[in-house]
Fold:
Amino acid sequence: MQKKTVKDFDVKNKKVLVRVDFNVPVDEAGEITNDVRIRGALPTIEYLLEQGAAVILTSHFGRPKGKVNDKLRMEKIAQRTGELLGREIKYSTEFVGPLAAEKAKALLPGEVLLLENSRFHPGEEKNDPELAKTLASYADLYINDAFGTAHRAHATTAGVADYLPAAAGFLVEKEIEFLSKALENPERPFVAVIGGAKVSDKIGVLSNLVEKVDALIIGGGMANTFLLAQGLEMGASLVEPDKTELAREIMATARRRHVNILLPQDLIVANAITETAEFRVGLPGELQGTEMALDIGPETIKEYAKLLKTSATVIWNGPMGVFEIENFAKGTYMVAEAIAASGALSVIGGGDSVAAVENSGLVSKMSHISTGGGASLEFLEGKLLPGIASLNDK
Ligand code: ADP
Ligand code: MG
Structure:
């Protein structure tokens, strides 16, 4: 997938509308607790300013559901953005309307304006074309740098691109580059590691990837359902009996395509999901009563790590166990280490998997950490994301 990027346009003296993801976490007092998302957008903003553009930023913040909500105003976000950029930025207390239009019109090259929360407007999430048109009238060019909302067809993420030349910012460019390199043109062997809580969360990902990979490694809670589908007793483990048919279908597709599908051959089992719970190594099929499978076992770790070390491309989505608890985290961290050591092109997606990689200190060893949970999941399902589809082709 080749989309135009911010570098494909001459932006000197142009007004550029940039969709950013400033949906930052805040505490009860409304103070920003983590500004990673704002920092992430700085390279695109700084590049545009250096090139002599006037930059209009738009983002949603929280879930105001189409109504103005004073608790979800973006004033503090504007302030923090200014601090991080090292320059004062302008802020419009209106998303669209006469005030916003006037501020946008008066904006000079080298200046930055942040518009109020886009979700104050009922037309944003409905992708109202009138709203998109109004917003587009403030600028000469549209840049999408908010990958986390690229799976939403909203006015600021997709609709506005109908009325302006449209291109990817640096963050979105990197996401497209790595995700599509892995999915469309992978160096082989290509291995997918899929885990996490449930099969039902990742049906689309499993069905899409089983058609593309050379090997499919399954772990986490979803492995229990695959084991159950083979008639193995899983005790009180998290299982989805209504998804066993689907698990069998995926295993059948894997066989037909000669995909090597790996399931846990041993497990860490315990009677409770707590820090102090006693645990043992158990085998699929011999779990008793209240016992639950909470991580992959030592033999499984060895087998998975061995395969991963020979891979050339890896996509990982979903932890191998209840990694939030130390005694059930080993499988997840050992998989992270094996991927890091493989030298493969590695793409990590999913909020919890990304958190696990961050905890393990291996971020710099991975080729790409995808920032958008839902968006990267839909990308891995093979869906065309509206926020990317709407950008101009190269
Ligand atoms: P991601 O956010 O990376 O996409 P998911 O949200 O699908 O991952 O899954 C992560 C969750 O799955 C974690 O909270 C973890 O505790 C849980 N989980 C993993 N393995 C098991 C298991 N065997 N039993 C119960 N929960 C599990
Ligand atoms: Mg999750």
Summary: DSSP finds 14 helices and 15 strands in the chain. The chain has a mean pLDDT of 96. The two ends are 9 Å apart (CA to CA). The pocket of magnesium ion (ligand 2) is lined by residues 350-352 (CB under 6 Å).
